[in-house]
Protein backbone atom coordinates (compact mmCIF):
# COMPACT_ATOMS: atom_id res chain seq x y z
CA UNK A 1 0.00 0.00 0.00
CA UNK A 2 1.38 3.39 -0.98
CA UNK A 3 1.52 6.32 1.38
CA UNK A 4 -1.11 8.93 0.67
CA UNK A 5 -0.61 12.42 2.04
CA UNK A 6 -3.32 15.06 1.68
CA UNK A 7 -2.19 18.55 2.56
CA UNK A 8 1.21 19.11 4.08
CA UNK A 9 3.05 18.36 7.31
CA UNK A 10 3.52 21.57 9.26
CA UNK A 11 6.51 22.49 11.38
CA UNK A 12 5.63 25.97 12.64
CA UNK A 13 3.89 25.97 16.01
CA UNK A 14 0.78 28.16 16.05
CA UNK A 15 -0.31 30.06 19.10
CA UNK A 16 -2.70 27.77 20.92
CA UNK A 17 -5.38 28.48 23.51
CA UNK A 18 -6.14 25.27 25.41
CA UNK A 19 -9.65 24.96 26.81
CA UNK A 20 -9.98 23.68 30.36
CA UNK A 21 -12.31 20.68 30.56
CA UNK A 22 -14.75 20.57 33.50
CA UNK A 23 -14.86 17.43 35.62
CA UNK A 24 -17.90 15.24 35.25
CA UNK A 25 -18.58 11.98 37.03
CA UNK A 26 -20.63 8.91 36.18
CA UNK A 27 -21.98 6.12 38.30
CA UNK A 28 -20.58 2.67 37.58
CA UNK A 29 -21.58 -0.74 38.79
CA UNK A 30 -18.77 -2.14 40.92
CA UNK A 31 -18.35 -5.89 41.08
CA UNK A 32 -16.77 -7.48 44.17
CA UNK A 33 -13.07 -8.11 43.74
CA UNK A 34 -13.57 -11.84 44.14
CA UNK A 35 -15.40 -11.82 40.81
CA UNK A 36 -12.11 -11.03 39.08
CA UNK A 37 -11.29 -14.73 39.29
CA UNK A 38 -13.87 -15.31 36.58
CA UNK A 39 -12.11 -12.95 34.17
CA UNK A 40 -13.64 -10.35 31.83
CA UNK A 41 -17.17 -11.20 30.75
CA UNK A 42 -20.55 -9.84 29.72
CA UNK A 43 -22.66 -9.14 32.81
CA UNK A 44 -25.65 -7.41 31.19
CA UNK A 45 -27.24 -6.53 27.85
CA UNK A 46 -29.86 -3.85 27.16
CA UNK A 47 -31.34 -3.89 23.67
CA UNK A 48 -32.23 -0.41 22.41
CA UNK A 49 -33.15 -1.52 18.89
CA UNK A 50 -32.71 -4.64 16.73
CA UNK A 51 -29.18 -3.46 15.86
CA UNK A 52 -28.19 -1.31 18.87
CA UNK A 53 -27.56 -2.56 22.38
CA UNK A 54 -25.63 -1.57 25.47
CA UNK A 55 -23.39 -4.40 26.61
CA UNK A 56 -21.97 -4.28 30.14
CA UNK A 57 -18.56 -5.92 30.50
CA UNK A 58 -16.73 -6.61 33.75
CA UNK A 59 -13.09 -5.49 33.66
CA UNK A 60 -10.84 -7.27 36.16
CA UNK A 61 -8.07 -4.76 35.41
CA UNK A 62 -10.20 -1.87 36.69
CA UNK A 63 -12.49 -3.98 38.90
CA UNK A 64 -15.62 -2.39 37.53
CA UNK A 65 -18.27 -2.81 34.89
CA UNK A 66 -17.86 -0.79 31.69
CA UNK A 67 -20.87 -0.16 29.47
CA UNK A 68 -20.37 -0.30 25.71
CA UNK A 69 -22.68 0.85 22.93
CA UNK A 70 -22.71 -1.92 20.32
CA UNK A 71 -24.00 -1.53 16.76
CA UNK A 72 -24.55 -4.72 14.76
CA UNK A 73 -25.17 -5.26 11.03
CA UNK A 74 -28.81 -5.41 10.00
CA UNK A 75 -28.38 -8.71 8.24
CA UNK A 76 -26.65 -10.37 11.19
CA UNK A 77 -23.93 -12.97 10.70
CA UNK A 78 -20.23 -12.90 11.43
CA UNK A 79 -18.60 -9.51 10.84
CA UNK A 80 -15.38 -7.70 11.72
CA UNK A 81 -15.35 -5.22 14.60
CA UNK A 82 -14.47 -1.53 14.77
CA UNK A 83 -13.69 -0.18 18.24
CA UNK A 84 -14.74 3.48 17.97
CA UNK A 85 -13.58 5.59 20.91
CA UNK A 86 -15.34 8.71 22.18
CA UNK A 87 -13.75 12.07 22.99
CA UNK A 88 -12.59 13.85 26.13
CA UNK A 89 -15.32 12.78 28.55
CA UNK A 90 -15.82 9.31 27.12
CA UNK A 91 -19.54 9.91 26.48
CA UNK A 92 -20.08 9.93 30.25
CA UNK A 93 -21.84 13.26 29.70
CA UNK A 94 -23.86 12.00 26.75
CA UNK A 95 -21.57 13.72 24.24
CA UNK A 96 -20.15 11.23 21.77
CA UNK A 97 -20.53 9.43 18.46
CA UNK A 98 -23.99 8.06 19.27
CA UNK A 99 -25.68 11.36 20.18
CA UNK A 100 -23.65 13.97 18.31
CA UNK A 101 -22.96 12.47 14.92
CA UNK A 102 -24.60 10.43 12.20
CA UNK A 103 -22.45 7.39 13.01
CA UNK A 104 -25.45 5.16 13.76
CA UNK A 105 -26.97 5.91 10.37
CA UNK A 106 -23.63 5.68 8.58
CA UNK A 107 -22.92 2.17 9.86
CA UNK A 108 -26.52 0.97 9.42
CA UNK A 109 -25.77 -0.57 6.02
CA UNK A 110 -22.16 -1.57 6.77
CA UNK A 111 -21.07 -5.16 7.36
CA UNK A 112 -19.28 -4.40 10.61
CA UNK A 113 -19.84 -4.48 14.37
CA UNK A 114 -19.10 -1.14 16.03
CA UNK A 115 -18.20 -1.13 19.73
CA UNK A 116 -18.12 2.21 21.55
CA UNK A 117 -16.93 2.05 25.19
CA UNK A 118 -18.66 4.48 27.56
CA UNK A 119 -16.29 5.95 30.13
CA UNK A 120 -12.61 6.77 30.45
CA UNK A 121 -12.94 10.52 30.64
CA UNK A 122 -9.57 12.23 30.27
CA UNK A 123 -7.89 8.81 30.55
CA UNK A 124 -6.32 8.91 27.06
CA UNK A 125 -7.34 5.25 26.99
CA UNK A 126 -4.03 4.12 28.42
CA UNK A 127 -2.83 2.29 31.54
CA UNK A 128 -1.99 4.93 34.13
CA UNK A 129 1.06 4.51 36.33
CA UNK A 130 -0.95 5.30 39.46
CA UNK A 131 -4.57 5.46 40.58
CA UNK A 132 -6.18 8.89 40.81
CA UNK A 133 -8.03 10.04 43.91
CA UNK A 134 -10.93 11.40 41.82
CA UNK A 135 -11.36 8.97 38.95
CA UNK A 136 -9.80 5.83 40.41
CA UNK A 137 -7.99 3.20 38.36
CA UNK A 138 -7.34 3.70 34.65
CA UNK A 139 -6.29 0.51 32.89
CA UNK A 140 -7.96 1.25 29.60
CA UNK A 141 -5.17 -0.12 27.42
CA UNK A 142 -5.54 -3.46 29.18
CA UNK A 143 -9.33 -3.30 28.87
CA UNK A 144 -9.29 -2.43 25.16
CA UNK A 145 -6.56 -4.87 24.14
CA UNK A 146 -6.59 -7.80 26.58
CA UNK A 147 -10.17 -7.91 27.88
CA UNK A 148 -12.84 -6.41 25.64
CA UNK A 149 -11.89 -7.88 22.21
CA UNK A 150 -12.05 -11.50 23.34
CA UNK A 151 -15.34 -10.86 25.16
CA UNK A 152 -16.86 -9.19 22.11
CA UNK A 153 -15.60 -11.89 19.76
CA UNK A 154 -17.54 -14.44 21.80
CA UNK A 155 -20.59 -12.25 22.33
CA UNK A 156 -20.93 -11.15 18.70
CA UNK A 157 -19.56 -14.23 16.95
CA UNK A 158 -17.23 -11.91 15.04
CA UNK A 159 -14.66 -12.70 12.36
CA UNK A 160 -11.93 -11.63 14.84
CA UNK A 161 -10.76 -8.92 12.45
CA UNK A 162 -10.48 -5.67 14.40
CA UNK A 163 -9.86 -1.99 13.81
CA UNK A 164 -9.70 0.97 16.20
CA UNK A 165 -10.42 4.66 15.70
CA UNK A 166 -10.51 7.60 18.09
CA UNK A 167 -11.53 11.24 17.99
CA UNK A 168 -10.02 14.28 19.69
CA UNK A 169 -8.64 13.03 23.04
CA UNK A 170 -8.78 9.41 21.86
CA UNK A 171 -7.29 9.97 18.40
CA UNK A 172 -3.63 9.61 19.29
CA UNK A 173 -4.42 6.83 21.80
CA UNK A 174 -6.17 4.81 19.06
CA UNK A 175 -2.87 4.69 17.17
CA UNK A 176 -1.01 3.99 20.41
CA UNK A 177 -3.24 0.98 21.10
CA UNK A 178 -2.14 -0.43 17.75
CA UNK A 179 1.48 0.21 18.73
CA UNK A 180 1.10 -1.44 22.14
CA UNK A 181 -0.85 -4.47 20.85
CA UNK A 182 0.74 -5.41 17.52
CA UNK A 183 -1.41 -7.64 15.37
CA UNK A 184 -4.66 -6.97 17.25
CA UNK A 185 -5.94 -4.23 14.95
CA UNK A 186 -5.74 -4.41 11.17
CA UNK A 187 -6.37 -0.66 10.95
CA UNK A 188 -6.01 2.31 13.29
CA UNK A 189 -7.23 5.88 12.79
CA UNK A 190 -6.77 9.21 14.56
CA UNK A 191 -9.53 11.75 13.85
CA UNK A 192 -8.59 15.29 14.90
CA UNK A 193 -6.40 13.80 17.62
CA UNK A 194 -2.80 14.27 18.71
CA UNK A 195 -0.56 11.41 17.56
CA UNK A 196 2.60 13.16 18.79
CA UNK A 197 2.01 13.20 22.55
CA UNK A 198 5.62 13.62 23.68
CA UNK A 199 6.12 16.92 21.83
CA UNK A 200 6.47 19.76 24.41
CA UNK A 201 3.37 21.54 23.08
CA UNK A 202 1.32 18.35 23.35
CA UNK A 203 2.65 17.49 26.81
CA UNK A 204 1.67 20.93 28.06
CA UNK A 205 -1.80 20.85 26.50
CA UNK A 206 -2.53 17.30 27.72
CA UNK A 207 -1.33 18.12 31.25
CA UNK A 208 -3.48 21.25 31.40
CA UNK A 209 -6.47 19.35 30.02
CA UNK A 210 -6.24 16.59 32.64
CA UNK A 211 -5.26 18.94 35.47
CA UNK A 212 -8.14 21.29 34.66
CA UNK A 213 -10.51 18.54 35.78
CA UNK A 214 -8.79 18.37 39.19
CA UNK A 215 -7.11 15.11 38.18
CA UNK A 216 -3.38 14.51 38.59
CA UNK A 217 -1.91 14.49 35.05
CA UNK A 218 1.39 13.02 36.27
CA UNK A 219 -0.37 9.83 37.40
CA UNK A 220 -0.74 8.91 33.74
CA UNK A 221 2.76 8.68 32.22
CA UNK A 222 4.75 10.58 34.84
CA UNK A 223 5.96 14.16 34.71
CA UNK A 224 6.49 15.70 31.25
CA UNK A 225 9.64 14.24 29.77
CA UNK A 226 9.31 10.92 31.61
CA UNK A 227 9.79 7.79 29.46
CA UNK A 228 6.07 7.01 29.38
CA UNK A 229 5.33 10.01 27.20
CA UNK A 230 7.67 8.74 24.49
CA UNK A 231 6.62 5.11 24.89
CA UNK A 232 3.00 6.10 24.14
CA UNK A 233 3.73 8.57 21.35
CA UNK A 234 2.68 7.17 17.94
CA UNK A 235 5.04 9.56 16.15
CA UNK A 236 8.00 8.28 18.16
CA UNK A 237 6.94 4.69 17.51
CA UNK A 238 5.85 5.02 13.89
CA UNK A 239 7.99 2.06 12.84
CA UNK A 240 5.89 -0.19 15.09
CA UNK A 241 2.81 0.58 12.99
CA UNK A 242 4.23 -1.21 9.96
CA UNK A 243 1.70 -3.83 8.89
CA UNK A 244 -1.25 -1.81 10.24
CA UNK A 245 -3.40 0.28 7.89
CA UNK A 246 -2.93 3.81 9.29
CA UNK A 247 -5.07 6.92 8.93
CA UNK A 248 -4.66 10.33 10.59
CA UNK A 249 -6.66 13.48 9.95
CA UNK A 250 -6.87 17.05 11.17
CA UNK A 251 -7.60 20.55 9.92
CA UNK A 252 -6.08 24.01 10.26
CA UNK A 253 -8.59 25.23 12.83
CA UNK A 254 -10.01 27.85 10.51
CA UNK A 255 -13.78 27.16 10.24
CA UNK A 256 -15.07 26.11 6.86
CA UNK A 257 -18.10 24.58 5.12
CA UNK A 258 -17.29 21.15 6.57
CA UNK A 259 -18.13 22.44 10.08
CA UNK A 260 -21.71 23.22 9.08
CA UNK A 261 -21.79 26.23 11.42
CA UNK A 262 -25.15 28.08 11.33
CA UNK A 263 -25.05 31.53 9.81
CA UNK A 264 -24.63 34.28 12.39
CA UNK A 265 -22.90 32.03 14.95
CA UNK A 266 -19.91 33.31 16.89
CA UNK A 267 -16.44 32.32 15.77
CA UNK A 268 -15.61 28.98 17.48
CA UNK A 269 -12.50 30.19 19.31
CA UNK A 270 -12.03 27.08 21.45
CA UNK A 271 -12.59 24.62 18.63
CA UNK A 272 -10.30 26.55 16.32
CA UNK A 273 -7.50 26.56 18.91
CA UNK A 274 -7.80 22.85 19.70
CA UNK A 275 -7.89 21.86 16.04
CA UNK A 276 -4.86 24.04 15.30
CA UNK A 277 -2.96 22.19 18.03
CA UNK A 278 -3.90 18.72 16.83
CA UNK A 279 -2.99 19.81 13.32
CA UNK A 280 0.55 20.34 14.55
CA UNK A 281 0.51 16.86 16.09
CA UNK A 282 -0.78 15.31 12.88
CA UNK A 283 1.91 17.08 10.87
CA UNK A 284 4.60 15.68 13.17
CA UNK A 285 3.08 12.21 12.84
CA UNK A 286 2.98 12.57 9.05
CA UNK A 287 6.69 13.40 9.05
CA UNK A 288 7.37 10.40 11.31
CA UNK A 289 5.56 7.77 9.22
CA UNK A 290 7.15 9.16 6.08
CA UNK A 291 10.63 8.95 7.62
CA UNK A 292 9.92 5.40 8.87
CA UNK A 293 8.66 4.31 5.47
CA UNK A 294 5.30 3.26 6.95
CA UNK A 295 2.34 3.47 4.55
CA UNK A 296 -0.31 5.85 5.84
CA UNK A 297 -3.19 8.00 4.68
CA UNK A 298 -2.82 11.50 6.11
CA UNK A 299 -5.51 14.14 5.62
CA UNK A 300 -4.64 17.71 6.65
CA UNK A 301 -7.33 20.14 5.58
CA UNK A 302 -6.99 23.85 5.00
CA UNK A 303 -10.35 24.46 6.70
CA UNK A 304 -12.15 22.86 9.62
CA UNK A 305 -12.50 23.53 13.33
CA UNK A 306 -12.91 20.99 16.13
CA UNK A 307 -16.54 20.15 15.28
CA UNK A 308 -18.61 16.99 15.14
CA UNK A 309 -19.37 17.69 11.50
CA UNK A 310 -15.64 17.59 10.78
CA UNK A 311 -15.18 14.42 12.85
CA UNK A 312 -18.01 12.75 10.95
CA UNK A 313 -16.46 13.63 7.61
CA UNK A 314 -13.08 12.31 8.75
CA UNK A 315 -14.71 9.06 9.91
CA UNK A 316 -16.31 8.55 6.51
CA UNK A 317 -12.98 9.18 4.80
CA UNK A 318 -11.14 6.85 7.19
CA UNK A 319 -13.72 4.11 6.65
CA UNK A 320 -13.63 4.11 2.87
CA UNK A 321 -9.91 4.76 2.42
CA UNK A 322 -8.43 2.67 5.20
CA UNK A 323 -10.62 0.79 7.68
CA UNK A 324 -13.06 -1.09 5.43
CA UNK A 325 -10.36 -2.33 3.01
CA UNK A 326 -8.21 -3.52 5.94
CA UNK A 327 -11.17 -5.37 7.48
CA UNK A 328 -12.19 -6.88 4.15
CA UNK A 329 -15.67 -5.42 4.33
CA UNK A 330 -17.69 -2.66 2.76
TrEMBL record:
The keyword Signal applies. Keywords: Signal. Residues 1-36 form the signal peptide. InterPro entries: AB_hydrolase_fold, Esterase-like. It comes from the Bacteria. Coiled coil: none annotated. The keyword Signal applies. Pfam families: Esterase. This is Esterase family protein. It comes from Rhodococcoides kroppenstedtii.
